[in-house]
Model the fold of this input.
Amino acid sequence: MSGFVEYRPYYARSFGLVRKLLRINWLFVLACCALAGIGYAALYSAAGGHGEPYATPQLIRFSASLIMMIAIALVDIRLIAKLAWPAYALGLVLLVVVWRFGHVGLGAKRWIDVGGLHVQPSELMKLFLALALAAWFQRANYERVGQIPFLIPPIMAILVPAALILKEPNLGTAVITMSIGGTILLGAGVRWWKFAIVIAVVAVAAPFIYHHLHGYQKQRILTFLHPGRDPLGAGYNIIQSKIALGSGGFWGQGFLHGTQNQLNFLPEKQTDFVFTIIAEEFGFADSMVLITVLFSMIAMGFYTALRCQHMFGRLAALGISTNLFLYCFVNLAMVMGLIPVGGVPLPLVSYGGSALTAVMLGFGVLMSIHVHRDVEFGVSEE
Done:
């Protein structure tokens, strides 16, 4: 009997681990795997029917990230909340390092070399910001959220990384970062009229902002408004993208038979324009399957936020789900010509290590929120 008492904590911990594993949203995990599979097929086709240099490395990264995601899902969400602000501070340091010593690619300084790998800190910063803001508002009541002095620190926490990202320059990610911050402020209970004032100020300042944009950013806006004005130059990307989207028809031209893809007319087809490969070779029908999977994951993320019993989890899940939505909306709208072209990848489908790792890290936190949705903050762990 004494032996049973001695090993009882082990059994208790084992039961707790099994219970956490059972509480993971495995449908969400399955959706991640489905997206990665679609991405593998698209990247395999982008390389002309070869695993290298896109599909195989991406599959390896996803497999490692999937293990990381499940491991993070088992971590108590209260520990993640304690690490939120240190992670935010680390993100700021990395953004400063990029600003001073970053690797230049495609005219922008967005990456740093870490052990031979290119890391894009702006992708991680979006997650760290969401966690930091969620931790800030965790114990705040509705009255305190209405006080201006209480809102100054979180507003600065949004503006500082957004300014550093804009300095790279990376306008698209900076706008997404501020949008995530604004959504969390709104979810925390910040009054609507304060957002109305900010929107009005931005609208008035729009001409001034446009005047100070980089030349290529102005060119993207002009190309969006008049894509045919320079078909072989600035308008080339979006014109070829639309041709690929339209040529796929309902059922597609067939795997490895997309003319725009295989003849290398598609620009950045392994990253920003990977959706055009899917639309051209698999058609409208399978494209809608991909979009359905993506927006089902977004819905599951927002549902996790609604079901969570603590403020930190609700706001963190809201921020992570908003980030996923903006990823999908901006990328899909961009390749369809509905908004100006920007460097925003399609989650788990586009080629790229930093974006994949950051997204899966966020999904791990989202799963931890789902697993620990009814824990009480301020109470010691079981």
